[in-house]
Design brief:
alpha/beta, Peroxisomal Thiolase, Chain A, domain 1, 33 helices, antibiotic biosynthesis
Length: 1016
């Protein structure tokens, strides 16, 4: 890697006054709106600390009354204390002790990574750096001022360093992690450090952030006393009306990568950072005063290293605080470099005119403005440009305050951004527009769009947000947008998947899904326990060429696997079964072609699922379906299987076509006596209750049908060419046995439920020549084999084949065995849509499986596209007011005696467990344990149950474990001192904790909860 390699801005998220996200931020800038407002009531009593404007100007510093601010306005965030602690596994009490800047950084970082078309989980464990610019720490003043209320959580909840460390910890990022405080230039200096870290190879991704919250009037008072504060709380950079600083809040995160890496991954790029730099004013006319020569030297050196001159600069985002001295010095420093520029003037602006000086986040606020301007190829106007300060002589410096948006031309455009710190630490950056890239799209290509959330309420909100955004996207991006959602939006437990072949259908499906979440809860909920999957392969009678055509057109991996099997089959069949399937050729009804075709379809579907990581724990096959099942189980080589199924079909095709098959509404035990004396009939299949098939001579079948009709037993002839699994097949058995003799005889590597034996194959049994020969005439004992399968730990059965034949049979058997979820590769309705594979993958994912989505998309459609980032739950609030610094922090709600024991635990499907049977007394020890857990973490008791994980779900860490230990020892002194190591090992779930307490000899101990929720 080169030390001068450009760095790509691939993702971003921000919150600034008047803008909740980057889209609203851009709209605020383009509209030239004012984001300032009155000091919110929860901050402090602004009127109490307000210095009324004097009747005549008074500039004497010492005559200003102390403890007063000259303004009641500023740029404030809406609801900066809103947070989603459960999303990050943080206990409510811990969240309440955290500086809100840490909370904002966590959520903003997550959203910025998603904006980069990446899943935050994919960065876990990687050398991703976190660089946070921050200068305000007023939360510590408020939270740590009351010594009696300081807890262990306040240590980790405060401090500049924890802003970066929180992000690294909760996202499991292993690169450099540091907070940067150089006053107002902090966040742009953080960008400079991140660029160097990327170039040196310390990290491959970098999150660069800036944050600022105004929680007390302290800095306002300081600015007033220093003569730096604008009375109206607004910055008016380079304006004749400039009269000081208006303070502002903000939080923003950029995701940076080396440009070569971003382009290699075809990642969307907002803009490119070409060069950054930082220096110090040194000794000037005061430590808080700017130094023109230092600014000029820094800007010139960064431009030189970036390989540009003033002629290349399209616009400059200045520091622009709106102080007379600061504006003058900055204009002079820039003018020395731009005044000799050829052509027109350079556009000049400062985002501080829109909402104020965001201090620690000021540099990144200006940088994001420049990034978005390059991305949109438009520079927003500058507020107060109509009242430009003539003393600055901006036209003479070839600088131009924009009164209206400036459209940037084509080709590469450069921008520059400055940020200067009060103590003299300066930073500057040069950016360029992103390189043009062209990607092919496929109109009409289907996809499956995935949306996941931590809870059902968030699922609905995120579904609607995605639907609204997709409604504005080009239709030919459908598959790429779907692939991106699979990559970014598929890791959380509450899930919805919508398959579609066009964007309007997808948008409608997402909105319908949101409505279903409202009415019935989420459409799919991930299971905590790993699903156990069985593949069930259909046999003859399941033929439906439409399904294969759908899979072949819309799933590249399936097409590849079907092509490969077709090549193995063609030497034996003499014709391409693939072509016959796709053309829906009537010739397929011949057994010599139909059986190989059914095998090819089943094999290709299973291979596609296996390539996507969906592998079965068990297999079962119905008749010809056993050959594909044997291949998946490793008992039969695919080449051998292709030869054998082709030979099997050919041999059966040589037999007379005087046979048939009859489905009768009788159990197998009831049907078998009817075959006595009928030598040319046999029991062909026992598929379930009142689902039996008899096969054989047509004449004898006709006589049997008449007898059944007289007995009022339903009987239905099947559309088949021969009497399969009947005595009429005996003439081909020995020849087929000889054909099987050359096939490798291997033991299956996973359990096979044989429909010849009606049970699981024993350890010593293999699918040898005798087995395959016997299979031709033996009845298909599907019901017995399926019942044995359902008695295992299987949670999902995927029917593999061109039509859903076994799924209804399995549904009838569930009353006698387990209740796994049934899924199938064929479309459930009459019409086979062009995106059944996408539907199936969505169903698999909603069922808790994790498919490899790439198999659904060709390379051209595996292109990242930006999607709206996650919408967090904002119901949590925790704030400390500058007017009331000792306000109690939120804690757990009061817990009525025994309330916890009345809360039903949830199953691994997220559903309430059945109520405790009458006569079963609730466990008071369990109630106490849950109560103490809730008090330690501040959790709602209604959300805590035996299956709740203390670390992942409740955010327990070592500090909370120690507190829980102390509470347990206090409430249950009989226990004595609990060994910390034992307790930590027993804290996987709340239920584990209860079992541990019982194991300490408390079983049967009487524990009574008092009205205060303590034990006695």
């Amino acid at each position: 890697m080169s030390v001068r390699e450009p760095i790509a801005v691939v993702g971003l998220d921000c919150r600034f006054p008047g803008a909740r996200d980057a889209q609203e931020y851009w709209a605020l800038l383009m509209d030239g709106r004012d984001g300032t407002g009155h000091v919110p009531e929860e901050r402090w009593d602004a009127e109490r600390y307000h210095l009324a404007a004097p009747s005549a100007p008074d500039t004497a510093h010492d005559s200003r009354p102390p403890g007063r601010s000259n303004t009641v306005r500023g740029g404030f965030l809406h609801d900066p204390d809103a947070f989603d602690p459960a999303f990050f596994g943080i206990a409510p009490r811990e969240a309440a002790a955290m500086d809100p800047q840490q909370r904002l950084l966590l959520q903003c970082s997550w959203r910025a990574i998603e904006d980069a078309a990446m899943a935050p989980q994919d960065l876990a464990g990687t050398a991703t750096g976190v660089f946070v610019g921050v200068m305000a720490n007023e939360w510590a003043f408020l939270a740590l001022g009351d010594y009696d209320r300081i807890t262990a959580r306040h240590g980790s909840g405060n401090g500049y360093f924890m802003g970066a460390n929180r992000v690294s910890y909760h996202l499991d990022l292993k690169g450099p992690s540091l907070a940067v405080d150089t006053a107002c230039s902090s966040s742009l200096v953080a960008v400079h450090l991140a660029m160097n870290s990327l170039r040196w190879g310390e990290c491959d991704h970098a999150l660069v952030a800036g944050t600022n919250l105004i929680m007390t009037p302290a800095i306002n008072i300081f600015y007033t006393q220093a003569g730096l504060s604008a009375p109206d709380g607004r910055c008016k950079p380079f304006s004749a009306a400039a009269d000081g600083i208006g303070r502002a809040e903000g939080v923003a995160v950029l995701v940076l990568r080396r440009l070569s890496d971003a382009l290699a991954d075809r990642q969307p790029v907002y803009a490119v950072l070409k060069e950054t730099g930082s220096n110090q004013d040194g000794r000037s006319n005061g430590i808080t005063a700017p130094n023109r020569w230092a600014q000029e030297q820094l800007i010139e050196s960064v431009w030189q290293r970036a390989g540009i001159t003033a002629d290349d600069i399209g616009f400059i985002e200045a520091h622009g605080t709106g102080t007379l001295l600061g504006d003058f010095i900055e204009a002079q420093a820039l003018g020395r470099l731009t005044s000799g520029r050829g052509g027109g003037s350079v556009a000049l602006g400062s985002v501080k005119s829109n909402f104020g000086h965001a201090e620690g986040a000021a540099g990144i606020a200006g940088l994001i403005k420049a990034v978005l301007a390059l991305h949109h190829r438009t520079v927003p106007p500058s507020r107060y440009a109509q009242d430009e300060n003539p003393r600055l002589d901006l036209p003479g410096q070839r600088l131009n305050l924009l009164r209206s948006p400036l459209r940037l031309g084509s080709g590469t455009v450069h921008a520059a951004v400055s940020s200067f710190g009060m103590g003299g630490s300066n930073a500057h950056a040069v950016l360029a527009s992103a390189p043009r890239t062209t990607h092919r799209t496929r109109p009409g290509a289907p996809g499956v769009f995935t949306v996941s959330a931590r809870g059902a309420d968030r699922l609905r909100a995120n579904l609607l947000a995605q639907a609204d955004a997709l409604a504005r996207r080009p239709g030919d991006q459908l598959a790429q947008l779907c692939w991106t959602s699979n990559r970014v939006k598929s890791r959380l437990p509450h899930r919805v998947a919508v398959a579609a072949a066009d964007l309007p259908t997808l948008v409608a499906g997402l909105r319908e899904a949101a409505q279903r979440v409202d009415e019935r809860g989420p459409a799919g909920t991930g299971r905590r326990a790993a699903p156990s999957v069985a593949f069930a392969f259909t046999g003859q009678g399941a033929q439906d060429p439409r399904t294969t055509a759908s899979w072949y057109r819309s799933c590249p991996a399936y097409a590849r696997h079907l092509d490969a099997m077709d090549q193995l089959l063609t030497p034996h069949t003499g014709r391409s079964v693939r072509d016959l399937l796709l053309d829906d050729d009537p010739e397929l009804q011949r057994p010599g072609l139909l059986q190989p075709a059914l095998f090819a379809v089943g094999y290709a579907m299973a291979a596609t699922l296996a390539e996507a990581g969906i592998r079965p724990a068990y297999v079962i096959g119905h008749s010809i379906g056993e050959f594909a099942a044997a291949c998946v189980a490793g008992a039969l080589d695919p080449a051998d299987a292709a030869r054998l199924v082709a030979r099997r079909g050919q041999l059966m095709e040589t037999l007379p076509d005087d046979g048939g098959m009859l489905a009768v509404a009788l159990d197998a035990a009831e049907a078998e006596p009817l075959l006595a004396g009928r030598q040319r009939l046999g029991l062909a299949a026992a598929n379930g209750p009142r689902r039996t098939v008899i096969s054989g001579d047509r004449g004898e079948l006709a006589a049997l049908t008449a007898e059944l009709t007289e007995r009022k037993v339903a009987a239905r002839p099947l559309a088949v060419s021969h009497a399969f699994h009947s005595p009429l097949m005996v003439p081909v058995v020995e020849e087929f046995r000889r054909a099987c003799a050359d096939a490798a005889d291997r033991r299956p590597n996973l359990p096979v439920f044989s429909t010849v034996y009606g049970r699981e194959l024993a350890d010593e049994e293999t699918l040898d020549a005798d087995y395959w020969a016997a299979q031709i005439t033996a009845p298909v004992r599907f019901a017995e084999a399926a019942l044995a399968l359902l008695a295992t730990d299987v949670t999902h059965v995927v029917e593999i084949g061109p039509a859903a034949v076994l799924t209804p049979l399995l549904s009838r058997l569930r009353t006698e065995a387990g209740s796994p979820v049934s899924l199938h590769t064929a479309h459930p309705g009459e019409r086979a849509p062009g995106h059944r594979p996408q539907q199936l993958f969505g169903e698999l994912w909603c069922a808790g499986l994790t498919p490899g989505w790439d198999v659904l998309y060709p390379e051209s459609d595996r292109l990242p596209r930006r999607l709206p980032p996650y919408l967090f739950d904002d119901s949590f609030r925790a704030w400390r007011s500058g007017a009331a610094p000792t306000r109690p922090e939120p804690s757990a709600p009061p817990v009525p005696p025994g309330a916890d024991s009345a809360v039903p635990p949830l199953t691994d499907r997220g559903e309430p467990c059945p109520p405790t049977p009458a006569g079963d007394e609730p466990d008071p020890l369990a109630a106490l344990a849950r109560l103490l857990v809730c008090r330690v973490g501040g959790h709602d008791p209604d959300l805590v149950h035996d299956d709740t994980r203390l670390h992942e779900d409740l955010g327990f860490d070592s500090i909370q474990a120690v507190e829980l230990k102390a509470r347990i020892e206090h409430e249950l002194p009989r226990l004595g001192t609990l060994p910390v190591e034992e307790l930590l090992e027993s804290m996987r779930t709340v239920g584990d904790l209860v079992r541990y307490l019982h194991s300490r000899g408390l079983a049967g101990t009487a524990v009574t909860l008092t009205a205060e929720g303590t034990a006695r």
